[in-house]
Amino acid sequence: MIDFFFLLEILSLLAKVLPQSHQNRDSPIFLSQVSDKAIEWSAPFSMAGLVTGVCSPSLPREARCGYVIILMALFWCMEVLPLAVTALFPVVLFPLMNIMDSTKVCMEYLKDTNMLFIGGLMVAIAVEHWNLHKRIALSVLLIVGVRPALLIMGFMTVTAFLSMWISNTATTAMMIPIAQAVLEQLHNSEHEMSPGGDVAGSINKAFELQEGPQKSELNQETQKQDNGHVLTVEEEGELNKEKQLKDMQHVTFCKGMSLSVCYAASIGGIATLTGTTPNLVMKGQVDELFPNNNNVVNFASWFTFAFPTMLVLLALSWIWLQTMFLGFDFRKNFGCGADAAMKAKQKMAYRIIKDEHKKLGPMSFAEIAVTVLFILLVVLWFTRDPGFMPGWATNVFNHNGKSYVTDATVVIFISLLMFLIPSEVPSCFCCARSHQAQEDSTSQIPVTPTLLDWKTINQKMPWNIVILLGGGFALAKGSEESGLSSWLGSKLTPLQNIPSPATVLLVCLLVATFTECTSNVATTTLFLPILASMAQAICLNPLYVMLPCTLSASLAFMLPVATPPNAIAFSYGQLKVLDMAKAGSVLNIVGVLTIMLAINTWGYSLFDLSNFPVWANSTASASCH
Asked: Of 101, 125, 152, which residue is a domain's last?
C-alpha cells in the first residue's frame, strides 16, 4: 500500500512541476520549488518505509534493499539533499533494516578505488597549482595557429588532453577565458581593418544633428568624415549591414568555440581511468561485484580501450561543430587563400597567445619537478600490469603468485613524493647562511615550501565525491548481500532472446538520456549493479554492458545543467539552451554510435568479450558455459 501511494505522490508532483518547466526550467526559483516539494512528499513516505522495514522482519531483504536504492535514486535525481549526504543513507538504513552489518557498510566508503581517486586528484592539483596546464595549453595553441577550423581543433585537443589528467571543470574554467580573449582580438582587429573603420565614429556630427526631413534630402549627397574619407549614406548603410553580419559571425564563432571546449572536456575525461569519476565508479563496482576478476580493469587496459574511442569521438565532434558553426566552406575555415587583411588579423590574435605564453616565463624548478613526476606516474601505471607481458609489480612485488600493488599504490607514492620534494632548488644547505644570520642566535633557517602542501589540497579536493563513491560501493555490496542482484538477474533473463548489440545500444541510449538530468556519478552508481546482474543472468560478459554504460554517462551534451563544463560555457552569455540542445543531441547519437563501434571492435578482442568469464560465474549464472 505504501508503494502505491508513493508512486501516486510522485506522479502528482511531476504533474505540478512539469508544466512550469517549459516556462523557466533553469530558474533558481523553479529548482527551489521542486526541491521544497520533493522534501514535502518524500519525508513522510521515507519514514513510513523505514518503519515498515524495521518493524516487519518478514519483509524480504531484497525488497528492503530495493526500497533504499529507489529512495536514494529519487533523492539524487531531485537533489533533495546534497549528493554526498544522500550517499550516506546506507550507513543508517542498511543496519536498521537488517541488510548489512554497520562495520561492513562503513568499510565500503574508503576502498582502493577511493584512494586512486584521491591520489589522482593530488597530482592534478599539483599540475594546476604550478600552472603547468596553462603552459601546455598555450604551447600547443602556438603550434596550431589561429585559423578558424584549426583554432577549434587546437582548443579541443588541448582541452581533451588536459581533462584526461585533471578535473573537467578546472580544464573548462581555464580554457574558455583564453578562447574568448583570442576570439575578441580577432573580432576587434577585423573591425579595425574594415574599409569604413568604426561606422558610428565616422559620421559627421553636423549630419547627426540634422532633422528627419533634411536627412532624406541628403540621401544622395556625400558627407566628409573627420579623417577625410567620403561616404554616401547608402555606403554607410552597407557598412552597417556588413558590421552586423560580422558581429553575427563573431557570436556564432564564440558559440562554437565555447561548445567545443566544454564538449572536449567531457570527451577527454573518458580516456583515462582517473579522467572522470564514472570511470572509477565502474572500476570499483567491478572489483566489488566480481572480486576474482584478476584486475581485468586497470589503468593500462582502460587506456588501451578508451583512448582510441576518445580520439574518434573528438574528431567527429570537431567535424560536426565546425560544420554547424563555421559552415561548409572548408577552404575558408582552414584559412586557405586568405587575403592580407585576414592574415594581419590572425597575426594579432596569434600575438595574444604568444604574449600570454611569455608572461609565464621560463619553466621553474617546481614545474620541471611536477612534469618529471607526472611522466613517471604514467610510465609506472602503464608498466605495472600491462596484460600482454609481466609488469614490474608482477616481477618484483609478487608473493605466492599474487601482486599486492595496485594503481592506487603508485599514485599515492607519487603524491607523497610531491609532499617531500621542495619547490625550489636548495641554495647551498648550511653554507647559504649569511654572516648576520650566523651571529643572530634567534635566526631560523628558511624552509623551502614543497610541491604540495595540505592547505592547497584541502581547499581544492572535492571530498564530497569520495563519499559519493563510497555510497555507490555500499549500494552494490548491499544488493549482493541482500540477494537483490540475483533477483534482478532472474527477472531479466528474457533479454537473452534479444541480440546482445541491440541490448547494449538500448542501454547506452537510456544512460545517455538519463545523465542529462542527473549526476553522471549517480547514474553509473545506479545502473552498473543492475547491468552486472543482467549480464550474469543472460550469460553475457559483464564488461560488454558495463563499459559502454560508463562511457555513455559522460555524454552529457544537451543541457547546461547536465555537467559543470556545460554550465561554465553557458555562463559566458553567448549560448542559448536551444544552441546547446541542437549541437548536443547530434553529439549524443554520434557518441553512442562511437561507443558501440569501440566495444564491438577493439574492445571485443581486448577484453575477450565473446566468452563468459569464469570470474563472473555465480549461482545466478550456473548454467553459463
From this structure: 101
State how far the Cα of 600 lies from the Cα of 247, in Å rounded to an integer.
45
Asked if residue 157 and residue 77 are part of one domain, the reply reads: no
Asked if residue 427 lies in contact with residue 448, where contact means CB atoms within 8 angstroms, the answer is no
| Contacts by 390-399, CB closer than 8 A, 24 or more apart | none
Residue 172 lies in a domain: yes
Residue 151 Cα distances to 45, 59, 132, 357, 519, angstroms: 54, 61, 21, 16, 31
Gap between the Cα atoms of 143 and 145, Å rounded: 6
573: alpha, beta or left, given left = phi > 0 and alpha = psi -120 to 50? left
Same domain, 309 and 187: yes
Are 417 and 122 spatial neighbours (Cβ–Cβ below 8 Å)?
A: no
Assess if residue 304 is contained within a domain. yes
Q: Are 74 and 145 within one domain? A: no
Domain that holds residue 73: 1-101
Structural domain contains residue 539:
no
Which of 50, 79, 101 terminates a domain? The answer is: 101
DSSP class of residue 292 equals T
Tally of residues, the chain: 625
Question: For the CA atoms of 570, 576, 581, 583, what is the dihedral angle to 10 degrees?
Answer: -80
* Cα distance between residue 118 and residue 431, in whole Å: 39
Residue 242 and residue 167 share a domain: yes
Consecutive 10-residue runs of the chain (625 residues): their mean pLDDT? 41 39 37 45 52 61 87 83 89 91 90 86 88 83 79 89 87 84 70 48 33 41 47 63 70 87 93 90 89 86 94 94 79 61 70 83 91 91 76 73 80 93 73 48 67 90 85 85 80 79 91 85 87 87 93 89 83 80 92 94 91 75 55
What is the tally of structural domains in the chain?
2
Residue 266 class from Cβ within 10 Å (0-12 exposed, 13-18 middle, 19+ buried)? buried
137, 35: one domain: no
**pTM of the entire predicted model:** 0.74
Mean pLDDT value across the chain: 77
